[in-house]
Amino acid sequence: DSPEIKEEVLRKDDRFLALLKDVYVESRDPAVRVKDGGGEHLPSKQEEKRLTKLGHLEGLDVEKVPKGKISLVEALTLLNNHKLQPQIWTAEKIAAEYSLELKEVNSLLEFFIPFAVQEFRKETRKAITSHEPKKLT
């Protein structure tokens, strides 16, 4: 806020200006070294995507997923297909159908098993008898 400081800041010093004109800067980028990622894949700006294979369930999930990945509904669908028809829906066929790695599909089929829903017939159900609540004395 001081006028003396403002004047000092705005004042041009001819001696410094002459020295600045003599300065020449040359800059070079360092040599680019490529690191071995050990098989890691760097994410690209445009990942390759595929359309999902949901059939009548397409309204429940995303429309496109990156190759090498599956959506949640697709995972449940392929697990159920494998459970119902393991001779048709083999790990190799699932890997080819959904663009997945075979070892990942084998792990998926080994560690994730869909629930089995069982419905009991009415004749075998036992009725729950209601008990009268105990009276507090």
UniProtKB/TrEMBL annotation:
Gene Ontology biological process: mitochondrial respiratory chain complex I assembly
Domain of life, source organism: Eukaryota
A Pfam family this chain is assigned to: UPF0240
InterPro entries referenced in this protein's UniProt entry, alphabetically: NDUFAF4
GO cellular component terms given for this protein: mitochondrion
Family the UniProt entry places it in: Belongs to the NDUFAF4 family.
Subunit: Binds calmodulin. Interacts with NDUFAF3.
Name this polypeptide is given: NADH dehydrogenase [ubiquinone] 1 alpha subcomplex assembly factor 4
